Structure prediction request, 136 residues.
Amino acid sequence: MGDKVSRISVSVPSDLLERFDDHTQRLGYQNRSKAVQDAMQSLITESKWMCTQMGGGVGAIVIVYDHGVKGLEEELTDIQHHFSETVCSSMHVHLDEENCLEIIAVRGKAIDVRDLAQELKTRRGVKQLKLAIVTP
Ligand code: NI
Prediction:
């Protein structure tokens, strides 16, 4: 960030501001300006990458899935093989009797990562999927 600072005034719904302040305080932010700056930066990072479909990025797909669904683990592995140019590595954690956690490191074109995430997300037994992208 440059040295030049702009002061802005924005209108937000009171309850949103209240929740924002509450949350950022719990995260350890000592002032609102720093929290707003970080929120702005994350929005730019995420949307910049999502908007430029041919642009590249690195990140991780995190999924939680039902260990009991027959064939699901193989299916998820097959999908990753299909996207072998996008998938760098993966880590499997047996969470408990029912659930598995898989963290898939990805690198590549936004459109490929999005397709991969979509394929995984739509399988029966996949309970949650989060995609975290960073632009180095
Ligand atoms: Ni497992």
Observations:
- The chain has a mean pLDDT of 89.
